Amino acid sequence: MAAEQKFTPQTWPESPEQATLEGKNKFLGFWFFLGGETVLFASLFATYLALKDSVPSDTHAKAADLFELPLVFLMTMLLLTSSLTSVFAMYHMKNYNFKKMQQWLFITVVLGLAFLGCEIYEFNHYYHEYEHKFTSSAFGSAFYTLVGFHGGHVVFGLSWIIALMIRNAKRGLNLYNAPKFYLASLYWHFIDVVWVFIFTVVYLMGMVG
Amino acid sequence: MANLHPNSGDPKVTYEYRRKKHAEEMRMQVITFTMMIFFTVIAFAAVGAGFSKWFIVPFVLLLAVVQVIFQLYYFMHMSHKGHEAPQLFMYSGVIVAFVTILAFVTIIWW
């Protein structure tokens, strides 16, 4: 099947993301990358757990002083819902409905931006209200590295999805871009996987000491 | 629907069968999502209710693991056929991740 071939919903293959050799290779390579990302985030989690609440003096805020559950809950709901909307987008991709796929991707991007806004507010709040800085303690360094690296992934994921949406806006779906959309959505889910551990290990476990 | 057989060779039938299968899968995804929301609410509620630390930590970790399994197997389609290589990659990653965290935590705490 040629990558630029025109399709109808009837002739669109069952697994368009793996219908070409390029698609198959991308699929395999991307999962390999996600396995590596798991290890990378594990090293950041390990560092955070080892250095949690390691502050030079009692004037520095610790985890239980900083975190506020309502904001973290809101951020979790935003990211979790955006994960579902990207599943919806891939559902329409598999049904060869380009317009609806773009609409759901757009909603995913909006939710992702809302999450990012909350995180920027949060970091700003810690910095100004609690003097909790990257350089103020080992705890601060470990916290901002872990949570900030996840935030960086959100920024990259959003840029990726937006780039795909704009780049392919007039092209429609074909076997050349179907793997690209599919992998971007896998990446977005992986960001949510990491966040599940961040809200559990950093925030929820941080609240109980 | 007995006549909607996937291998009947009739493109129209195959198409309708696939549409139906996708719609069914979508319902599963919504159920998955509902359960993930439920687990999240329970985890936050357990911390908010102020139970003992020795109950909360293993409890919320267990909920996180279950939620991630849902995400990987349903949202990321790892339950589908042809995902043997992704499973190899992810489980290898998880083993290294587990050892790394265990090593760091035990070095510092003991």
UniProtKB/TrEMBL annotation, chain A:
Cell membrane found in the keyword field: yes
Subcellular location: Cell membrane
Swiss-Prot/TrEMBL GO biological process terms: aerobic electron transport chain
GO molecular function annotations of the record: cytochrome-c oxidase activity
Main subcellular location: membrane
GO CC annotations, alphabetized: plasma membrane
Topology of this chain in the membrane: Multi-pass membrane protein
Keywords: Cell membrane, Membrane, Transmembrane, Transmembrane helix
InterPro entries the record matches: Cyt_c/ubiquinol_Oxase_su3, Cyt_c_oxidase-like_su3, Cyt_c_oxidase_su3-like_sf, Cyt_c_oxidase_su3_a-hlx, Ubiquinol_oxase_su3_dom
Any Pfam family hit: COX3
Transmembrane segments: 28-51, 71-92, 104-123, 143-166, 186-206
Domain Heme-copper oxidase subunit III family profile, first and last residues per copy: 1-207
Family: Belongs to the cytochrome c oxidase subunit 3 family.
Name of protein: Cytochrome (Ubi)quinol oxidase subunit III
Protein source organism: Domibacillus enclensis
From TrEMBL, chain B:
Keyword Nucleotide-binding: no
InterPro entries per the UniProt record, alphabetical: Cyt_c_oxidase_su4_bacillaceae, Cyt_c_oxidase_su4_prok
Annotated Gene Ontology cellular component terms: plasma membrane
Keyword Mitochondrion: no
Transmembrane segments: 28-49, 55-76, 88-109
Localization of this protein: Cell membrane
Topology of this chain in the membrane: Multi-pass membrane protein
One Pfam family in the UniProt entry: COX4_pro
Keywords for the protein's UniProt record, in alphabetical order: Cell membrane, Membrane, Transmembrane, Transmembrane helix
Domain of life per record: Bacteria
Protein's UniProt name: Cytochrome c oxidase subunit 4
Organism listed in the record: Domibacillus enclensis
Organism phylogeny: Bacteria, Bacillati, Bacillota, Bacilli, Bacillales
